């Protein structure tokens, strides 16, 4: 089966135009998290979503969101909600879009909440969006349970093939690894190299 691809941390419509709809499945935008250099406003997110083709699922990336923020995200037209940090009890009841539950792995085997309404789990390094990786071997038991999960954290065109070989994620997620070295923003050459590396890994494993 083809490994899905998510490109995260878009900050402009120009970057959105770099994503080929037949190869990229999800696009992420960081909202309501001013600590991130990729944080954007809802207005900017709307501009970006106008450029993205309908086949690419628009993902709102959040940390401990409030009900009001989830409402604004849904009104803006996002398809999916990615939640890092605290997940308030009322959010799953109130949210009308699927939830990706992010787990920031802090050095040991992650414990996951097995709520039936969770669409997918996303395993990331301890600090989200840091470009740092973690020990993928701690995901072996999750892989073995056949659960749908997303691998994130420090992926780039040169390690994503090995990541796919080791943990067989349903989707791989990248942000820092497809950004320019010397300036802010996504690099279309690195995005294409990432897509090619995923394709190559899938071909080898089929
Ligand atoms: O990108 C951020 O700054 C960010 C902020 C808050 C929550 C999540 C964030 N990014 C997520 O981190 C992973 C991996 O990123 P990277 O490839 O290691 O840079 C990805 O899911 C981003 O959505």
From TrEMBL:
Which InterPro entries does the protein's record reference? Aldolase_TIM (IPR013785), PRAI_dom (IPR001240), RibuloseP-bd_barrel (IPR011060), TrpF_fam (IPR044643)
Gene3D superfamilies to which the protein is assigned, alphabetical: Aldolase class I (3.20.20.70)
This protein's UniProt keywords: Amino-acid biosynthesis, Aromatic amino acid biosynthesis, Isomerase, Tryptophan biosynthesis
Q: What is its EC number?
A: 5.3.1.24
Source organism's superkingdom? Bacteria
What is the catalytic activity of this protein? N-(5-phospho-beta-D-ribosyl)anthranilate = 1-(2-carboxyphenylamino)-1-deoxy-D-ribulose 5-phosphate
Q: Does the keyword Oxidoreductase apply?
A: no
Task: Tell me the pathway.
Answer: Amino-acid biosynthesis; L-tryptophan biosynthesis; L-tryptophan from chorismate: step 3/5
Q: Which GO terms describe its biological process?
A: L-tryptophan biosynthetic process
One of the record's GO molecular function terms: phosphoribosylanthranilate isomerase activity
Domain N-(5'phosphoribosyl) anthranilate isomerase (PRAI) residues, every copy: 5-196
Alphabetized Pfam families for the sequence: PRAI
Q: Which family does it belong to?
A: Belongs to the TrpF family.
HAMAP family from the UniProt entry:
PRAI
Q: What's the name of the protein?
A: N-(5'-phosphoribosyl)anthranilate isomerase
Q: Which organism is it from?
A: Dialister succinatiphilus YIT 11850
Give the gene that encodes this protein. Answer: trpF
